[in-house]
Amino acid sequence: MSDELGVTGPLVNGSWLEKTSIGTIDHVNPATARVNGSVLSCGPQEVDAAVAAAKDAYPQWRAMSPDKRRRILQRIEELMLARVAELGRLTTLELGVPIAVSSALAYLCSGWFGYYAGWADKIEGATIPPSPVMAPGLDYTVPEPYGVVGIILTWNGPIMSVGMKIAPALAAGNCVVVKSPDLAPFTVARFAEIALEAGLPPGVLHLLPGGPEAGEHLVRHPDVGMISFTGGIPTAKKILDSARHTLKPVLLELGGKTASVVFPDADIDAAVTETVRSCFNLSGQGCNLTTRMLVHREVYERVVEAAGVAAKALTVGDPFAPTTALGPVVGAQARDRILGVIDKAVADSRLVAGGHAVDKASLPPQVQGGFFVEPTVLADVDPGSEVARHEVFGPVLSIIPFDTEEQAVELANSTPYGLGAVLFTHDVARVQRIVPQLQAGTVHVNGPSGQPPGAPFGGYKQSGHGREGGKEGLYEFLQTKNVFIRA
Predict the structure, then answer these.
(1) Which residue among 253, 374, 391, 476 is the active-site one?
(2) Residue of 216, 374, 391, 468 marked catalytic
(3) 90 and 154 in one domain?
(4) I need a labelling partner for 354 at 20 to 30 A (CA). Which of 47, 195, 287, 347 fits?
(5) E-strand spans in 173-215?
(6) 200 within some domain
(7) Is 287 a catalytic residue?
(8) Within a domain: residue 459?
(9) Is 165 a catalytic residue?
(10) Tens digits of per-residue pLDDT, 452-487?
(11) Do residues 282 and 343 share a domain?
């Protein structure tokens, strides 16, 4: 698989650069530990060029009739749908995501372009009723784009962020400079090619693979009107510190420690199936995965046993095999960090399944060099422990018992995060009592929604602020101007 992905680099003003100020970085396939491509990484010099070109392109893009922007976004959706298999294959090669999951991510991305295409010609303001204490006249609002928007993508599922961020930014009339991650640049680059093929004018979208230096320069740049970032809390704090120099708004979609809360009246089999499926999706490398399971003591041991059985039944191996449920984690450093978290947690909890690196002999020959961690289930976890309160970003499920509804709510809210929660119960009155008490941006009952493009997504507390998806996600990329015309 060596060099199977070739070399990818920056897209600036419609052209793919053949060299950069930083140079080439090898990309390692986490499923094989072999180099499978190269990345031309960017620095401040490329950021400056991209922002300047985006600024030049903005007046024409903004002046384009909304129906023309709508048709371009619709064409992007059509082309992405036709190439879901190709986009999925690239994601699997660069991240080791099982092929069924990576193809689903590409399909979801196309849906956001279709959804926001429908908004492109429906952005409207409001007429403000006259006040008797003010002069007579017409008062109204005009939603306007920021101009140049900086988007910083996460490595663990960048094609999802492409749909949730780039689609609404373009529909709103902004030009976009995207910093894609060095760890996962190939799928996003293919998307950029599709966007140009669909008729997106060359200066409207710029793509810059790069590291922290490129990201910081993009955030600080005075000609960038706002920033949208998905990633971890430490990086978010650095971004906010950089953004203070220009006081630009920053949309933050950060980490999570989503709790799956199981009551005795729930469908226990469904609760275990859904929780395990979510927790180990993307090898646990996701922000809104159900990495905690809070279980009423009445059904606790039954759930613990079933979760262990379900985890052990997951097929770990070649991400291109259709039956594989769990691929590798992103690299050797991530694997070793995750195993360290598990080793520390085992001292104070009960190991039900997993707990180790996957035995290479159990893997197919083509992936025996990969970075695989067993799907791990821990029971009797201390709610105040590191593994219960903070992201592991690996395939680890923590199970904690509770006795009362009040205790369940307290435990669900006991982490610094507030991204999501899932309730398993058939008691509608209980749902109505609990949902207002949960400090979470998304609450699902008896199973996840699949994140439809019309639904807003975002967090409370240290899971960030702002929303992606839905009408709310569109208006994040617009600012409101008030106009008064005196009679």
Answers:
(1) 253
(2) 468
(3) yes
(4) 287
(5) 175-181, 205-210
(6) yes
(7) yes
(8) no
(9) yes
(10) 999 999 999 999 999 999 999 999 999 999 999 998
(11) yes
